[in-house]
Amino acid sequence: MVSKKFKIKRFDPEKDIPGGKPRWEEFTVEMDPFERLLDGLVRIKEAQDGSLTFRLSCAHGMCGSCAMKINGKNALACQTLAKNTPEAVVLEPLPVFPVIKDLVVDMDPFFEKIGAVMPWLVADGPHPERERSQSPEELGKIMDAIKCIMCGCCTSSCPVYRADRDYLGPAALVKAARFILDSRDATWKERLKAVSGENGFWMCHSIYNCYEVCPRSIDITGYIAWLKRLAVKKMFFPPKGQR
Ligand code: SF4
């Protein structure tokens, strides 16, 4: 067992002034080195402070709920083993998004961007008798992008999004690329037009923060570069001022 110190940035809307300085609180937990930080948080809540607030759902890296800033880098608490962290772990809510309480942030701005790129299939032609099938090669083109669990780690770590909240952000752009590449989708032109506007992929500076924090190892910057190349090929040039 190892003794792990958790230093947690806390904010309680009922006690703290909105926008005021957050409080830092420390807790010590005895942990098996192979336990995840999420296990430590659960133990703090159960045995030390029931008011500590964080999100969790699947606890297996499939839902993205426990995304937070861990020792300065966005990650999932359920994927971070105690043995891979220093003796003192610093936990903060995901940056950029408004804090609701402690480690819980308001994800509405993130999901609004996802919604703006029409994250659903738009197929043409009559309904098939069974499913709309794809070949393994066609599926292979979107396989990486469909691994996205919409945790928000990428958009929250993007300096361009931090500077301009109108930017669609990396997660929404990956979602757009995923449907443009989908052999069953019939709306690539509308989709490309929607994401090549002034708040779209031309704002990306290829900084790679998104790629580095993605818990699913999705080549986010690669997808955005692919969108740019496709736009040039199809003559969807950057809006004036971004050329
Ligand atoms: Fe999370 Fe990766 Fe999806 Fe971004 S692309 S929302 S980091 S899973």
Report on this structure.
With 243 residues, the chain is of the alpha+beta class. The protein has 2 domains: 2-105, Ubiquitin-like (UB roll) (Roll); 108-242, Alpha-helical ferredoxin (Fumarate Reductase Iron-sulfur Protein, Chain B, domain 2, Orthogonal Bundle). The protein is 31% helix and 15% strand. The chain contains 9 helices and 7 strands; from the N terminus they run E-E-H-E-E-E-E-E-H-H-H-H-H-H-H-H. The protein has helices at 37-47, 108-116, 136-142, 153-157, 159-163, 170-180, 188-195, 209-213, 220-233; strands at 2-10, 23-31, 67-70, 73-76, 88-92, 99-101, 104-105. The strands form 2 sheets. Strands 2-1-5-3-4 form a 5-stranded mixed sheet. A two-stranded antiparallel sheet has the order 6-7. Strand 6 (99-101) and strand 7 form a beta hairpin. The longest helix has 14 residues, at 220-233. The radius of gyration is 20 Å and the shape is globular. The model has no long low-confidence stretch (mean pLDDT 95). The site of iron/sulfur cluster (SF4) has 16 residues, from helix 4 and helix 6.
